[in-house]
Design a protein that fits this description.
Number of domains: 1
Shape: elongated
Radius of gyration: 17 Å
Distance between the termini: 17 Å
Structural class: mainly alpha
Helix content: over 70%
Strand content: under 5%
């Protein structure tokens, strides 16, 4: 995880992100978007690997309750990661120069 991304996460949310990113140059904003996208992929892979490690243990695999709990934890974890990284991207997109080809809603959604 890059130092840029760590700074963004440390802000604790959208309000802090607006304050932090408002004076960043365009190149840094574009870079933090790329950082966030890469970090989300890495985090998703990490969560999936942890889920597989636990979900396929006999005591969990054969238990409906344990399997369901592990599925919920996996889904919640991925959702939380998506929320964090999409907040960062959204604020960075807000400060980037507007260009339909780069920042229209379909493009943003497709990239995440």
């Amino acid at each position: 995880m890059t130092e840029r991304l760590k700074k963004c996460i440390a802000t604790g949310g959208v309000g802090g992100l607006f304050t932090l990113l408002k004076d960043w140059p365009e190149a840094e904003l574009r870079a933090v978007v790329e950082d966030a996208e890469a970090a989300f992929e890495e985090e998703s892979d990490r969560i999936d690997a942890l889920w597989k490690d636990h979900a396929f243990r006999v005591e969990n695999f054969l238990s409906k309750d344990r399997s369901a709990m592990l599925d919920r934890v996996k889904d919640d974890s991925i959702f939380n990661a998506l929320a964090i990284f999409s907040e960062i991207c959204s604020v960075a997109y807000y400060y980037l120069p507007r260009g339909k080809e780069d920042y229209d809603a379909d493009t943003v959604v497709d990239r995440l």
